[in-house]
Amino acid sequence: MSNNLEITNNTGDQIDETEEFVKQHYGTVTYLEYFCRILPKIELHAHLNGSISKNSVCELLKQKGNTSLKMPHFSKETFNLETCFEMFKFMHQLSNSEKNLRFIVKMVIQEFFEDGCTYLELRTTPRQLNNLTKAEYVELILEEIKLNPHDIFVSLLLSLDRRHTAEEAFEIVDLAIKASNRSFNTGVVVGIDVCGDPYAGDFEIIKPAILKAKALGLQSTIHLGEIDGREFEINSMLETFPNRIGHGTFIPKNCLSEVYSKKIPVEVCLTSNVLCKTVKSIKDHHIKEYFFLEKHPCTDDKGIFFSDLSNEYVQLVLNFKLTKQEVFDLSKNAMKHTFLDSNIEDQLQVKNRIFDKFEKFRDQFNLI
Ligand SMILES: [Zn+2]
């Protein structure tokens, strides 16, 4: 990103009318980028396989040696929700062995740490690999989380895919329940997610498994309203009392009143939405409509959209003119909506340590 304020973001939108604001509040764009990078950040919506960076993709392809596997390439114009799922298929082919999966978890955590994240809730759909059961797949990821040497706290959500059968969905919920009963230091599952191609599957089939997870105390987030015209489905999703909503791009008015009354926070993925063409531009993003909802900037798939969490904050500032104090408040506010449980001693300790980092940053920049 240049310092002359003629900025083109990852989504190709021209940013204008920001020069005076950035000058007044940050001095330069370079300083704004610096501020957003060192800001303690909380990532609540990151898919493991979608977060594999280009560098890691190259390394994994190199290790595979003579392979016909190639990363699909899409231009900004041809990229959309369908091509996004093609990218996922490619990423899944890279993470199809124990060795590669360990490498991917390690690198994704390291990259979020290098981006200034202080807490990361990674999500993944348990898969059966050649020599690994779904339970072993989860265990392996938790082992890598435990080995994380960086100053970033990491926990895991297990994702149910919309295309799952009821049996598959219950299997994942059972895995999540089992893996939630362990200490944070050994890697812990803190909730479940519902994801997958929004044009596919039937939410009603996996709904009973979600209700079971909720009844047993797991928290949940749901990719909700990613595409238009799904009122019937959104109503059903809201009946499961999700603790957070992923995207929430197309929430009909009558459903929105329920989201407001339940005060469900939204995981906002600006670059992802624009590149998938579910919103026209960042300036037109539905984030500005949801006045009474808590909103948290997230990356979704930083490896697919080439946008880390710092960049998501930079884009917010450039498009919606946020001051340093507003950026800080937004980031710190996400602490309220992690799935860490304050009633569990070691998770409470993690929350306190994250809080201390925000306090230190606040003092460093004379914020309130
Ligand atoms: Zn997502």
TrEMBL record:
<dbReference type="Pfam" id="PF00962">
    <property type="entry name" value="A_deaminase"/>
</dbReference>
<dbReference type="GO" id="GO:0046103">
    <property type="term" value="P:inosine biosynthetic process"/>
</dbReference>
<dbReference type="GO" id="GO:0006154">
    <property type="term" value="P:adenosine catabolic process"/>
</dbReference>
<protein>
    <recommendedName>
        <fullName>Adenosine deaminase domain-containing protein</fullName>
    </recommendedName>
</protein>
<dbReference type="InterPro" id="IPR032466">
    <property type="entry name" value="Metal_Hydrolase"/>
</dbReference>
<keyword id="KW-0546">Nucleotide metabolism</keyword>
<comment type="similarity">
    <text>Belongs to the metallo-dependent hydrolases superfamily. Adenosine and AMP deaminases family.</text>
</comment>
<feature type="domain" description="Adenosine deaminase">
    <location>
        <begin position="40"/>
        <end position="348"/>
    </location>
</feature>
<keyword id="KW-0378">Hydrolase</keyword>
<keyword id="KW-0862">Zinc</keyword>
<keyword id="KW-0479">Metal-binding</keyword>
<dbReference type="InterPro" id="IPR006330">
    <property type="entry name" value="Ado/ade_deaminase"/>
</dbReference>
<dbReference type="GO" id="GO:0046872">
    <property type="term" value="F:metal ion binding"/>
</dbReference>
<dbReference type="GO" id="GO:0009117">
    <property type="term" value="P:nucleotide metabolic process"/>
</dbReference>
<dbReference type="InterPro" id="IPR001365">
    <property type="entry name" value="A_deaminase_dom"/>
</dbReference>
<dbReference type="GO" id="GO:0004000">
    <property type="term" value="F:adenosine deaminase activity"/>
</dbReference>
